[in-house]
Amino acid sequence: MGKDYYSILGVPRNATEDDIKKAYKKLALKWHPDRNRDNKEASEKKFKEIGEAYEVLSDSQKRAIFDQVGEEGLKGGMPPPPPGGGMPGGMPGGMPGGMPGGMPGMGGFGGMPFESFGFSTGPGGPHSGGHSNRANFAFNPSAAEDIFSKFFGGGNPFGQGRGGFDTDMHMGGMDDDGFSGMGGMPGGFGGIPRSHTMPTHTSTAPTVYTHNLTCTLEDLYKGTTKKLKFTQPNGSEPLILQNVIKPGYKAGTKLKHNNVLLTADGTKQTVEVVIQEAKHPRFVRDGDNLKTDLDVSLDEALGGINRTVEHLDGRKIPVKLNKGIQPGQVVIKKGEGMPNSKTGMKGDLFVTLKVKIPPLTESQTKKIQEILRSGA
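Above: the chain sequence. Below: its structure as tokens.
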């Protein structure tokens, strides 16, 4: 189960921006590792959680995504909802319920599915700004310190070279947000020169950056093109990547864009886009085959059916059977499954008939039993 960022900050789900800011300040000061040297490992973990929660809830788009799909959806790279609420639409096949889709006409991209992401390469790496949604949202200690330092006009007031912080001193004079009246503390906030910065911790960015791209079954059946937008560091232009989804692609298919994404040190990374398949409300994929259920009434089971199943491309596939349908009977429609991305050949569609028994009175049940017994 994913994290509940509201619980971490101790605020209700309808908390205001000021409530979230106040809760973060109070908890971040309380759990800063330099104030908890006797229990530094636990405090570091808590401090990172608090920073992660604040980073999400203080950003309107990240918060909206979290409210709809939770932490796991946020970390999976769900696109931000458009102004006015709701997740983007415009995807082929009209999938409901907030699956990743298109934002028509955005930036002149012709209405193709479009997602925007911030980018982080780890400690000391670039961080997204504004209201971009993070791809594979990740949080690390240096990012937690970065957020913390923003409240004090420069570097970390607890860091070395600042006069330090007396972890045993009495914290009198603070108001509810934990920060008023602290300018006179030893090495305190009021005495931090704004021109100073904390030492940065650098690390080599991985050579391949992986991003999951969720596609609907309609996308994978018909094919489509999805564009991803990545924020780059040091004021560089955003990176726009086109991802051609061929008919028949499966979950786990990888699309590589070699040496395209800038890192903080000026080198370039390869972006590896991994296809994920969204759950479909009616169809289940089994290799190149498709499976679906069709509800059949008892009357239809006895007398036969002449029905249709709406396919992923909107076509009506006929399902016609004579009387005497058995519960769980399977109808196979040849060549109506998923296309194979290499050969173009299609698998089969398996339609399982689910006979629905209506509620019967005791008298009706007895009559049916008598009829069945007499015909045996």
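Confidence is low (pLDDT under 50) at residues 83-142, 152-156, 159-203.
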